[in-house]
Amino acid sequence: MKILQLANKATFPPDGGTLAVLSLAKGYIKNGHRVFLLNIETHKHINKPELIEPEYHNKITIQGVKVNTRISVIELLFNFFFSGKPYIAQRFFSTSYSEKLTAILQSENVDLVQIEGLYMLQYIYTIKKHFSKKIIYRPHNMEYKIWQKNAKETNSLIKKIYFNSIAKRLKRLEQTLLNSYDFIIPISPVDAQHYNALGNKKPLHIAPFGVDFKKIPNSQTNKNQQNLLFIGALDWIPNQNGLIWFINKCWNKILETETKTELLIAGRNAPPEFINFIQNKPGVKYIGEINHVYDFMINNGPLIVPLFSGSGLRVKIIEAMALKKSIISTSTGAEGIPYTDYKNIIIANTEDEFVKGVKYLIQNKNNQEEIGKNAFHLAVKQYDYEKIAHNVLNFIK
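The chain above was modelled as a monomer; its predicted structure follows.
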């Protein structure tokens, strides 16, 4: 079977979205199928097919269409005042991409189309015009809910008005395109509930992010269990807000007793003002973009996920579990994961809970390792990429 995947991000640099797309593509290949990935190349993401492991080279075709998704203030303002559509989504709708998609559907013998995320679901009418077989929609999160929470968290009146406008427009887009697909495979149980509540009538199956455990390096012992880690896209507002909250509310309380502990923050595209905020705090080190994520996580201590808005599944949490890492996360950050608090993850939603959780792990290295091992066992059971792809294919039969 030939599966066509449509994505709004190219393959490099890897982040949660690109990894989620590629993990399922590789899972399909491991189940004996071919994949054609047509994605959008932007100023932030480009294709580097040579970085795909050699074992997949003969089974995956990657093509990109360059689209200018840079935010234009003039276009944004025009959209805000004269359009009811979400500008954040419109940036990814391109005539050139639609033409390339049409050409592939007409020339390739495609058996199945999988649409990755709401922004690409905008191409559903182009697909249906040239394709009569099965169409899967795979939402990575509930976009409008993220912006609703961003609006609640900001203290800026202008941002609050604009974020609420984005949320309303994205929800309207979700509702307009709802049930235009044949199957829906959300990435988490919570998102599945949201889609059914929104009015989804199509067959639904949960398909989380998957890990290739054969590629996970051995992590029996951390080299430095004292350091805390954060890793994630630093141009994403929920990540920024969560880190600012953690540093302002929790960090000094942790340093009162854990004077040798450092907070290492890794991620790309951090705004200059955010870097300045980080660098002015004692014990906080801004690492920036890193090339070897697994090495970075293995060689240090617990991972923190102070996330208060978002949906879907946190890829970095699943990867950290696969690496036997102990993790301290808000319930929002761990949403969709069948965890047991203080067994395979620590859940912290207040500053006191975060401080308590961090000190528990830093002061008890054996407990830190035990929670990491339990997290690994949970990940093996729930997040094997081959099994996830196999279950999706069985679901659509």
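The mean pLDDT is 94.
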